[in-house]
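Bug report

Summary: structure tokens for Beta-1,3-N-acetylglucosaminyltransferase differ between web form and batch submission.
Environment: batch mode, default settings.
Steps: 1) Submit the sequence below via batch. 2) Compare with the web form result.

Sequence submitted:
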Amino acid sequence: MKDNIFLSIVIPMYNTERHITKCLESLNNQTIKDFEIIIIDDGSSDESYKKAKEYLKDKTLSYSMISQKNLGQSVARNEGIKNAVGRYILFLDSDDFVGNNLVEKTREAAYKQESDLLLFDYKRVKADGTIIPNRQQTFESFKEIKEGIDVFYAYKNNEIRLWTSSLIYNREFILKNNLKYLADCHGAEDLNFIFKSLMKAKKVSFIEDTLSYYYQRVDSLTNSPDIKKNITVVNAMEDVCKFIKKNSLDSKLEEIIKTEFTPEHIMYQLFGYINEENKNEVINYLKEPKIKTYLKRCKYDTTRYGKKAFVWMKFACYFPSKFSSEYLKRKG
């Protein structure tokens, strides 16, 4: 029966008519079918909904399709949580895909260890289908179940990779802790959810296998023409700080978010956004008091980002016009 299934796969969809079929094919090819698909069409103006419906209509997969006006993927994912009945939840974007054994591998591990979260590896995929090699990563120190806070620090120290679709969540754990994606947040909303989950999780387990694939779209958010959406990474990180205070967690966590993750993600978004046409807009954002404050607080001595990134942050903070010109010159 549907309410006894292992995994709910929540797929927010917005104008991905060229990719949704490949995403769904990867689910249809699963070695076991102990899952449901929940597609939330976020006001697509192309043929995404039609393509998905046509692909699924003659398949034996359990699925539902929900339409909403364009409210963003955070709202779409929250809608998926409300409608999910699986014991665990995977959030999968409609232009990404998974390995054929994802459900089989994660079910075996999750049921064995009764985890709050289960992590696995992923790979990035270029637009031409080429797999991008990952830097070497080992779960050697994560053979046993860990507390989520240990995983947070491992990620901070670049010991492990994390991404939206490289972990599954126990649905009861999400509901018990009232975890939701931050509405109106379009940048780092995934990290916001992951961080809050890790800070509450008592049992996190790991699979070393690569089970999901992150498609690198040229029209992704970091190449978006809307700087207002890009810079909501600040909202995402500030919301994590509020969560830390509300739950009376270690204040050192808040300091890490403010001095390491926030400046890092401000720069990540600006590096992907800036070009000759919009550089004045970037300069104006760099002059905003809040942005300057976070960039001033970036740390030289950190395992999160390198010394080169630190120099760029300081350059952007104190000399925004020169930063823009120099970065674009080097970018070519």
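Above is the batch result. After comparison, the two runs are identical; trailing whitespace caused the diff. Residues 38 and 98 are 15 Å apart (CA to CA). DSSP finds 14 helices and nine strands in the chain.
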